[in-house]
Amino acid sequence: MNSMPLPATQRDCMSAATKRYKYLRRILKFDQMDFEFAFWQMLYLFIAPQKVYRNFHYRKQTKSQFARDDPAFLVLFAAWLCITSVGFAIVLKLGFLQFMNFLLYTVFVDCIIVGIIIATIFWFVLNRYFRQKTEVQDVEWGYCFDVHLNAFFPPLILLHFFQLFFYNGLINHEWFISRLLGNTFWLVAVLYYMYITFLGYSSLNILTKTHLIITPLPLVITFYIITLVSGFNITLALMYFYKNRVV
Fold first, then answer.
1. 131 bridge partner residues
2. Angle ∠(84,223,171) on CA atoms, nearest 5
């Protein structure tokens, strides 16, 4: 007796579970990862992020999924978190235990937990309100997480790496130029995140009205101007927060 065919949603669920299993199974097999291509993606997220998403479409055509199937990008991302955390430890003069606490907080809270929350929110909202009514295919949760990592990488390098070179000598003061430089770093980082997130979802033909993702842009710029006028140095405030949470 032939078994009844599985519903489409159940087949999709099983397929997603299989993809996650294969992805996690490869996460410690460094010899099977394409680190050169992952590094290429990180570079192009700065200079031409739209080219990164062209590869996501190619993966969809060849492997029937938008989300990454190679954990090399995630491994390199974690490596950058470790490197930048060392920089923070030096700038903030953290002890070894404080550095380890900061590193664990950055990796598991700032990156993984926050990333899971943001990806889940986008996954739910996009599938519920932005997906075309005639589309059966939905937005993969793994793709939402990839979009978050893509969008988070340039801000990570700007705020947790390049900004550190200016902190003690220039940003860590009450001068106007100090908050101008520090707050501009944050403005550029937020704009990068919004733009790369917008590119990620606007490249999906199954979604509509993705331009709404960048509608908060005027509010971001207005807040930036207010911080300059009011004398609020965002970098100083966040540095105090970073240091207080590990002390």
1. 207
2. 40
